[in-house]
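tool=predict chain=A
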Amino acid sequence: MATNTIHIGNSTAAPFLAFGDESIAADGDMVVYAYVIVRRTRLHQVEGRLRRLKRQFKIPQEVMLHCRQLMAPHQREKLGIAHLSTEDARLIIARAITLMNESYVWVKYAYCSLASFTANMGDVIQFTDNSGAVGPIAKVNPSAKALTGMLAHAAMVAFAANNPGPRAEFCEVFASEERTAVKPLFGDGPSKQADSIFGGFSDIGTPPGSTFRLDPQIAPAERHECFQLADIAAYLCANAKSKRQKYPFYEEQLSRLRFWTRSDFCPVGPDGMPLEHPAEGATPCP
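tool=predict ok
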């Protein structure tokens, strides 16, 4: 049994900063949580390049880049950026990918089909402890927003120690505020604000007798400029990984990312499939 809790995500001395956001594909099925991870010493450089990108497209700095709004003409009009076309919005996304590549920004993301999750999990789940002893039975309450909490944890913490990219214990972690009330994924507990479930415990990859606790700092999207890149990364990944509909533009842009780690989240099914598929990643981050 784990006896030592290793708190991660709240160290102001960590060499990396991770900014997380969630997205649901246009098909309503593919759910993603993504982090963009920036070396602390490069933060001002990345923020400066992001501000220049917005100036190039005559976007006021106070207008945050949110892909759902960028891609919708009526939303662009409401934000005062009606001069942008849908092609302009796509070009902004493409240039943001170039910015991340040239600034050595790492993207870590986890994704899951809500339909597959619901089908595999069924209506109830039987818990067991590490010894295999049978525990309580809990109701399953599948929803995209509830699933983002598990994905946020999987993307940052639940990777083997030798996977590429900055490890969670070397990151100060920030999660974009999400006030939507959601029921817990398992059990009959009361609804909670969605961002309250972005943290949690994991013993995957920890030393014997230890467990990780992810403690992300929840902040409004306007507080950190890099949340804009996290929004772009999450939106891009969700639509590129859609199983119901093909989005060639997003697939192409995702393929351009140089530094990434992904996890195809998959719950345990009757056939004994593991909780998640092994993480995959690109070359190590400079």
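Confidence is low (pLDDT under 50) at residues 270-279. DSSP finds eight helices and 14 strands in the chain.
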